[in-house]
C-alpha cells in the first residue's frame, strides 16, 4: 500500500559539501581520459540493434503494454557472440515467464494452450502497487524528529513517542539486533536530494556515473548535462515548485532529466511509460505538470492526450514537450544502427518539432546555452517529487515526497548497507527508475555513494546474466520473481556472477530456497525488506550482515518507529498479536497531492497506516501476514491469502501462486488459487488439494484451482490480486448472463 507522513529528522551537522559551482570541479586528469568502452564485435553490434520499437498508430499506442522492448545486452564482448534479444516485454522460455519487471514491458498474453479454467493471461500493470512490499536496506531507531517539515500538510511529526491509541511506554526491541556498524540514529542534512550529485561530482568528477549498453557517462558529464537541462527549463519559463513530468525508460536521459528538473527548482513527476491515454491524462492533469520529458516512441500517445489544439485540450497547463530517443544515449555505431531498425519496424518520426511546444532533447542540450540563473536548491521541507500510486485500489494518488524524505531514506539505506564503499560500487538497474524502489535504492543511492549505475532498459534474463558477467555489478536490488528466474536459467552457472555482494528483495515474500540457491550461485547476500511509496519507500529490512529471519521483513530502519495496532480501535497490540502495521519516521511522506481527506485517513497522529496486517516478535522482527482488504472470510473464519500461497509455493511443481476470495452461496466466500507451474511439471487439482489438507486447516484449503501461464503483476513483480478478483467477477457475471 502507499502512504506517507513527512517527518524529516532534526537537522544535524552536515558532512556533505555545499553546492559546488561548475568552475570548482577539478579538471580531468589525462589518465582519466580513457576512451569509452572498447568497440564490440560486429556480431554484437548488429545483434544489439533490436529495440524499443512501436508503430505510432493509435491502435498500438493505446495498448497499456507498450511494445518498447529496448536494446538489451551486456555491453562488453561476450564469448558467445550475439546477445540474446528475447521478445519485448517477456522473459525467454527458459527464464521465468512471470517476471514482469523492468521498464516498458508487454503484458504477458494468455497461452492458447490454457484451457478455459485458466482465465486470461496476466498483464503487467503500470500501477505502483500501494502495498508493494518494496524491500531495501534500512533500519530504525530513535524517535523521529519533532518538527514537521511538511509545513503542516500532515501531522506526521507528533512529539508523542507512543503509538496511536496507547500512552504506555514505547520500546524498540529491534535496536538490540542491529549490527554493531549500524547506528541507531542518523543526522539528516536540510538539503536537496540533488546535493548528492553535487557532492559526488566534487569528489569523483571523472568516475563513471552511468553505463548504458556500452556507453558511459562520468559524474562531470552527468552534472554538466543536468545543469544544462536545468537552464533550458528555466529559460522556458519553468519556475520553482512547478511540476515537470518524466516519462522515460531506464536510459541516461532519465537520470539527466531527474537531476535537471531538481536543479531547476521544479518537482519531479515520474510517469510510467506503460500508461494508456486515460491514465496519462489523469496524472498530467492532476499534477498540473507544465512540461514533460519523454521518448519518441511515446509521443503519439501523448499527442492524442493533448489534442489537436493543446492549449484548448484536457491538459492546457502542459506547455512544453521535450522528446528524446534511445539512440541519444547509445554508443557508436549503435546510435546509427538504431534509427535503421526503427524504420524497418515501421516507426515514423513525424514529431512536429518547433510546434505546440515540442522540442528535441538533443538539440536543446547542444545549442547555445541560455543566460539564466538557476534558483537555490530545495530544502528538506520542500516538495521534491510526486510519486503516483494507489492504482491497485482506485485512481492513482500523487504521493508528496519532500527532499527530506528522499534524503533520509537514501541515508538510512546507505547506513544499512555499511560495507558499501564510496566510488567503488556498481548498481545493476534492472528495476525501473521511475518506480520509487528504483528511484531510492538505485539512482539516489548510487549517486550518494558515487557509484556507477549500470542501466538496463528492461529485465531480460540473458542480458542480465551477461551484464553481470561483463560489468561486475556489486549491488542488485530486485524482486523474488527476478531471482527465481535467474537461478532457474539454464546458463546461470556459465556466467561469472561472483561480483554480486548485496541483493535487496522486495514486492513479495522471499522463499528460503530462493535465498539459499541465489546466495550459493553468487556468493553474495540476499535479504528481504519492506516499503511503500508513502515511505520513500523503505521502512524495514533484514540485516545484510547480521541475524536474518526468513519469512520476516526484518527490522525497522534507523529512526523508524513501528507498532501493531487493532485496525478498528487503534489500540496497540501485544508482541505476537496480529494487527495493522503503522510506521513513522523521517522518510514518511508529507501527504497525498490535493487529497486532504485521504491524507488525514492515512496519516493519523503522525503515524502512517499501511493497511498491511503484520506481527512483531520479541526481537523486533516484523512479519507481513496480508493486506487487510485481501482477508477472506469463509464460513466466518479469517483466511489469509499469503499463508495459503506460501503452502502452495512449497509444492515442487508450483512456480507461482496467488489466492483470492470468491463468492460462495454456502460459505459466503471461498478460497480460489491461481497456479503457475514450473516448466515440464504437471499436477492436478486433487494433488494440490491433498498437499494443502496436510498443511492447512480445512477452511483454509482452496476449493477451486485455476492453472495459468502467468499472473498479473505490477512493474516490480507484485502479484495483483485485485486484477484476479476483477477477472473472476467478470467471469461470474458472464456465466449468469449465459
Explain how this protein is built:
Mean pLDDT is 80; it is low at 1-161. With 738 residues, the chain is of the alpha/beta class. α4 (219-235) packs across α5 (252-263) and α10 (403-416) crosses α11 (436-448). It contains 18 helices and 26 strands. It has a domain at 629-707: ANL, C-terminal domain (GMP Synthetase, Chain A, domain 3, 2-Layer Sandwich), CATH 3.30.300.30. The radius of gyration is 24 Å and the shape is globular.
Question: What is shown here, in short?
Answer:
The chain is an alpha/beta fold. It contains 18 helices and 26 strands.
Which key terms come to mind for this protein?
738 residues, alpha/beta, eight-stranded mixed sheet, five-stranded antiparallel sheet, 18 helices, 18% strand, disordered N terminus
Write the layout of secondary structure elements.
Elements: H1 42-47, H2 58-61, H3 195-203, E1 208-212, E2 215-218, H4 219-235, E3 243-247, H5 252-263, E4 267-270, H6 277-287, E5 291-295, H7 299-306, E6 320-324, H8 334-344, E7 358-360, H9 361-366, E8 383-389, E9 397-402, H10 403-416, E10 426-429, H11 436-448, E11 452-455, H12 461-471, H13 480-487, E12 502-505, H14 512-522, E13 525-531, E14 538-541, E15 555-556, E16 561-565, E17 579-584, E18 591-592, H15 596-602, E19 603-604, E20 607-616, E21 622-627, E22 632-634, E23 637-639, H16 641-649, E24 654-664, E25 668-677, H17 685-693, E26 704-707, H18 721-737
Parallel strand pairs: 1-11, 3-4, 3-5, 4-8, 5-6, 6-7, 10-11, 12-13, 25-26
Antiparallel strand pairs: 1-2, 8-9, 9-18, 13-14, 14-15, 16-17, 17-20, 19-20, 20-21, 22-23, 24-25
Helix pairs in contact: 4-5, 6-7, 10-11, 13-14
